[in-house]
Amino acid sequence: MTASLTAAGFAEDDVRERARTGAAAVFPPHGEYGHRLFGARGDRTAASPGPLDPLDALRLVPPVLMPHRLEKLVELAREPHYGDVDLTTDIGGFRSTAPVYVSAFGSTQVADSGLGAAASRQAGRLGIPMVIGENIVPTVGYTGAAATADTGSGGILARLRAYESEVPDGVGGIAFQQSTEDADAEVWNLIYSAPSAQNLLATGRLAFELKVGQGAKPGLGGMTVVGTETAARLAEHFTTEDVFGDGKHVLRSSSPGTFTEEILRQQIRFMRNNYPRARVWVKLPPGRDVRTATAVAWEAGADAVTVDGAEGGSGWAPRPFFDHVGLPLAECLRRVRAWEKSGCLLASGRMWEGSRVAKALALGARAAGLGRAALLAVDENPDDGLDRLLACLTLELRLIISALGKYAPAALAPEDVWAPGTAQLDG
């Protein structure tokens, strides 16, 4: 029977694990929760190793003739080089020192174990924007006072204060994400009136991000693993289910929320009317109608729309979603680029080095979000791991942009990338 199953294309180890553990096999091993991040290629099952990421398959192609380089030569009165590339970028109403931002960390143990605050300090010091993720207040409280041994000790205020204490004047900014449960906890009202947020608010460096969905789990809400004590406390606000059967760990799931074109439009208008001094960001999952949703958000007045590709990592996600649910980021960007009245488009999903960021920028993104990569960097070195990661990434970007004969991220265009086996992607 083993031979016939294998010949039929089944992965024997995966089938046997499902037979042993039941519903728990839908998720990665729960004993690893809080100690690692999921969604990388190493988390693929034997049955689904995952196709090549379409964005990785693209090649950056410099031209032979470079009129922009000549313009730069005339401006500088010398031959330009990669050090002349200016990476400063406007991101959703914020001024950033580079075309990157730190994307959302929510209430998972990975982010709540001190890494979230450490990442906030480093992002602030670097002068790049940061998104503070959802479900922190409903899970651990506004200050973290509701935390227990299995949820960590950090609150949303700790991340805000860490960022605000380090960010230089004139650059950076924080976007606070809100989910359905966050709305019930009035997170945006709390932040809008928080003393620690007033400097950012007064200088136009505070935003609220409406979370419509995410790349790792499109169509689902946030998921984490909590202990039984915490599960009992959160059961009123979240869905909790004992899928692991060990009497110690419980799956906690949040609501994905319900959106139509009109609901999205009205929600953005509500944000603009009720929080007039805050920027408005919207985060979309990699859905098939991502072009329509992006257009609705921009027309309603969103300062930035984030498209989170299916390659996005996660603190916790069902295994089938890693490879089989959601559009790849490259396809999301292709669909959104077809809309003529483009606004500020942000892209996230397995961003960690300069060439991938450059490809996303060439396909229409204004900046790229560092999610799992930022947390891994901070985990490696809580003092300056993110600084070093960004130093590497920005050097790669300057080299690539210069090689393409351009000297600003906004100058990148579809003409700069090529997909093997196709004609030049020149728009």
How many β-strands, per DSSP?
Answer: 15
For CATH, the homologous superfamily is named as Aldolase class I
Q: What general outline do the C-alpha atoms trace?
A: globular
Number of helical elements: 19
* Parts with pLDDT < 50 across at least 5 consecutive residues: 1-10, 41-50, 145-153
How much of the residues is beta strand, in percent? 5-15%
Distance from N terminus to C terminus (CA atoms, Å) equals 52 Å
Percent helix among the residues?
25-40%
Reading off the top of the CATH hierarchy, the class is best stated as Alpha Beta
Q: Report the CATH topology name.
A: TIM Barrel
Major β-sheet, in short? 8 strands, parallel, barrel
Please give a structural write-up:
The protein has 427 residues and is an alpha/beta fold. The protein has one domain (56-418): TIM Barrel (Alpha-Beta Barrel), CATH 3.20.20.70. It has 19 helices and 15 strands. The protein has helices spanning 2-7, 12-21, 54-57, 67-76, 109-112, 115-126, 136-140, 156-166, 180-184, 187-192, 198-202, 228-234, 261-274, 290-299, 319-324, 329-337, 354-362, 372-380, 385-403; strands spanning 59-60, 89-91, 94-96, 100-105, 130-132, 174-178, 206-211, 223-227, 239-241, 249-253, 279-284, 304-308, 345-348, 367-370, 417-418. It has an eight-stranded parallel β-barrel, surrounded by seven helices. The longest helix is centred in the C-terminal third of the chain and has 19 residues, at 385-403.
